[in-house]
Amino acid sequence: MHNLVPEALEQLYIRGIFDGERRKLALKIGASVHQALEKAMDQSEWMDKGSKRRVQEKLDALSFNVGHPDDFLDEGCAEERVLT
Questions:
Q1: Contacts of 56 by beta carbon, 8 Å cutoff, 6+ apart
Q2: How far apart are CA 64 and CA 17, in angstroms?
Q3: Do 57 and 35 share a structural domain?
Q4: How many CA atoms lie within 13 A of 56 on its CB side?
């Protein structure tokens, strides 16, 4: 129960300040950066295939966490996080 109030305040802040459109834009920018890194790697002539494979694995492992988790504003998920 003690985590419920801080999370509720976080949700109010996110809903009021960091709206869905801003988050979508930030995620779109992150995806563009990811694509540019992949393109630069593909076009590089100094890396061998093994190095490119390892770089691709690292790029695939990248995640862009912007503002809040995807399910953060979902009421059911919020209750589950607080109760666990």
A1: 38, 41
A2: 19
A3: yes
A4: 12
- How many helices (DSSP H) and strands (DSSP E) are in the chain? 4, 0
Q: What pTM was estimated for this model as a whole?
A: 0.62
Reading the block at residue 39, the tokens are 């393109």
pLDDT in tens, the chain (84 residues): 446 567 778 777 777 777 778 888 988 999 999 999 999 999 999 999 999 999 999 999 988 877 777 777 666 655 555 545
How many CA atoms, within 13 angstroms, populate the side-chain half-sphere of residue 74?
8
Which residue segment(s) compose the domain that 77 sits in? 1-18+71-84
